[in-house]
Each structure stands twice: as structure tokens, then as C-alpha cells.
Amino acid sequence: MTRQSISFTQPNDDWLKAQVDSNEYASKSELINDLVRQARKQQRQLDWISSKLDRAEASGFTKNTKKEILSISKSKLND
User: Which of 75, 45, 7 is CA-nearest to residue 16?
Assistant: First the structure.
């Protein structure tokens, strides 16, 4: 495992400490690794959605832009 030294703003450091103090995580390192895993997973999901939108747009299936498709999809989630 690679060892790193990073700095946090006071509010972020306070939040990290609170998570560890609440026994949600055993250490700041564990918490940071979990946050990075979540961000990587979210990026994979966004990449997948983007590729689906690109293919749909290129296929002529719709004349809507990515932004329009996303807006329509979000509005249907809130119905």
C-alpha cells in the first residue's frame, strides 16, 4: 500500500475526525479509501451512462441531446 501525506481544510478535517470518533470508520485512512472507492464507482456509472447516451444519439434513435435526455430521465424519476 502506498503511503501519502495530505492536508485538509479545518472543516474537512473536523468531519473526518467526527466519522472516526463515531466508530463509523477505524481511521481516516480507511475513510479516505472508502470515499475514493465510492468516487471511482460513481465515475464508472457516469461513463456507462455517457456511452449509452452517445450510442443512442449516434443511432438516430432520438434527436434529443444528452442534456435533454438526462433532463427527461430525471423528471421521470421524480414522478
Answer: 7
pLDDT reported for residue 35:
97
Q: What DSSP character marks residue 1?
A: -
Dump strand ranges (E) for the chain: none
Q: Is 56 exposed, middle or buried (0-12, 13-18, 19+ CB in 10 A)?
A: middle
- The cell numbers describing 18, all together, are 467526527
Report the SS3 class of residue 4. Answer: coil
pTM summary value: 0.66
Cell of 64: 434529443
Query: What digits encode the pLDDT tens for the residues 15-52?
Result: 999 999 999 999 999 999 999 999 999 999 999 999 98
Calpha distance 34→40 (Å, rounded): 10
